[in-house]
């Protein structure tokens, strides 16, 4: 049986069927939790922020105008709640050393990564992601894992679209540069 | 150089580098919300609990609100009671300050009678302003008790 889409569920909730909201929570709880965890860092706080997000969204549902995807609207609430919890006004992203990030070939990195086994690939990616500030991790998670477009990320974070593009580009470069140094370290370990 | 052609704002970037990263990222396990998360939310939805205002942001707002209110009240007192003895004490280069403070304190309490008489004889504008201030404070007190520490005004 087909799952109802977000708008159909929202219609039901607005018609008075509060229980239908559980479908929305189930659908987005992991994504919201993982995004806010990247900003607030502690699991307990992330749970509180995620709960607040869903409650705020529930109470603001009548004001949801369906101009954007529901997920974009929900992530904007989650982002604002998480940012205000950390008492910051905007996201902070990493300063990247251009000399470092230009010193590699993405083709080589892709090739080298494809030579190692899947578990090792994930270990490296996990380690490399940890070198990014939480907000950068959040941007890249929204983009790759949550399939948000650049315009949607701009709407969620309040950044301009051009700014989001540049940030994603630089984050990708940083990821490749870190992967490169991880791969080199692996080769060094194997040789010794 | 930035691949602006591929960077469509509506659709994700799909250059070769991107596909590679996207595939890798999609294989990373997503952090799971704690068990019972949905049930916890729904319990609050059914019980009609409102989302809790962000404590820190809320406190900061309230601090500003109370500071503004305090400043407004002080200014109003200065305007209304410019003749009060406290306001006429020159603290610098004055002899017998303690004596003056004592007299001023006594006059201060007797000044309340004058204040009430002053309010009774005040203009409608001042009365309205004072009533609104009183309502603001009452609203704040009422809301803080009845609405999960949230106010309609702040």
CATH superfamily of the largest domain in chain A: Winged helix-like DNA-binding domain superfamily/Winged helix DNA-binding domain
Q: What is the mean pLDDT of chain A?
A: 82
Gross morphology of chain A? elongated
In the CATH classification, which architecture of the largest domain in chain A applies?
A: Orthogonal Bundle
Overall pLDDT confidence of chain B: 69
Give the largest chain-chain interface (CB within 8 Å): A-B, 54 and 41 residues
| Helix and strand composition category of chain B | mainly alpha
- Return residue spans of chain A where pLDDT drops below 50 for at least 5 consecutive residues: none
Supply the helix-strand structural class of chain A: mainly alpha
Tell me about the largest β-sheet of chain B: none
Order of helices and strands of chain A: HHHHHHHHHH
What overall form of chain B do the CA principal axes indicate? elongated
Rg over alpha carbons of chain A: 19 Å
Low-confidence stretches of chain B: 1-13, 146-154
Order of helices and strands of chain B: HHHHH
Structure commentary:
The complex is a heterodimer of chains A (192) and B (154). In chain A, 74% of the residues lie in helices and 0% in strands. With 192 residues, chain A is mainly alpha-helical. Chain A folds into two domains: 6-85, Rna Polymerase Sigma Factor, Chain: A, CATH 1.10.1740.10; 98-191, Winged helix-like DNA-binding domain superfamily/Winged helix DNA-binding domain (Arc Repressor Mutant, subunit A, Orthogonal Bundle), CATH 1.10.10. In chain A, helix 2 (21-40) packs across helix 3 and helix 2 runs antiparallel to helix 8 (134-145). The longest helix of chain A has 31 residues, at 161-191. Chain A is elongated and about 60 Å long. The model of chain A has no long low-confidence stretch (mean pLDDT 82). With 154 residues, chain B is mainly α. Chain B has helices at residues 16-27, 37-46, 55-80, 97-120, 124-146. Chain B is elongated. Classes of the chains: A mainly alpha (192), B mainly alpha (154).
């Amino acid at each position: 049986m087909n799952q109802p889409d977000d708008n159909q569920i929202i219609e039901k909730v607005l018609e008075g069927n509060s229980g239908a909201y559980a479908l929305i929570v189930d659908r987005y709880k992991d994504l919201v939790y993982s995004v806010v965890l990247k900003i607030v860092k502690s699991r307990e706080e992330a749970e509180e922020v995620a709960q607040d997000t869903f409650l705020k969204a529930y109470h603001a549902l009548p004001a949801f105008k369906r101009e954007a995807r529901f997920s974009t609207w929900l992530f904007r609430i989650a982002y604002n709640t998480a940012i205000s919890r950390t008492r910051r006004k905007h996201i902070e992203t990493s300063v990247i050393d251009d000399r470092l990030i230009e010193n590699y070939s993405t083709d080589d990195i892709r090739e080298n990564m494809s030579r190692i086994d899947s578990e090792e690939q994930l270990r490296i990616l996990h380690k490399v992601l940890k070198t990014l500030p939480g907000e950068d991790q959040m941007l890249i998670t929204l983009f790759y894992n949550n399939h948000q477009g650049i315009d949607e990320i701009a709407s969620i974070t309040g950044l301009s679209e051009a700014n989001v593009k540049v940030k994603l580009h630089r984050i990708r470069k940083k990821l490749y540069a870190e992967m490169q140094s991880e791969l080199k370290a692996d080769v060094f370990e194997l040789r010794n | 150089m930035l691949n602006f052609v591929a960077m469509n704002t509506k659709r994700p970037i799909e250059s070769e580098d991107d596909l590679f990263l996207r595939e890798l990222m999609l294989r990373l396990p997503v952090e799971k919300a704690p068990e019972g998360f949905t049930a916890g939310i729904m319990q609050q939805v059914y019980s009609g609990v409102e989302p809790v205002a962000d404590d820190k942001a809320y406190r900061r707002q309230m601090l500003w609100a109370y500071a503004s209110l305090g400043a407004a009240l002080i200014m109003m007192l200065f305007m209304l009671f410019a003749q009060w003895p406290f306001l006429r004490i020159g603290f610098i280069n004055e002899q017998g300050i303690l004596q003056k403070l004592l007299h001023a304190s006594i006059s201060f309490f007797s000044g309340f009678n004058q204040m009430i008489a002053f309010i009774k004889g005040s203009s409608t504008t001042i009365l309205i302003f004072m009533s609104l201030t009183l309502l603001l404070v009452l609203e704040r007190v009422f809301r803080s008790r009845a609405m999960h520490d949230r106010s309609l005004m702040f």
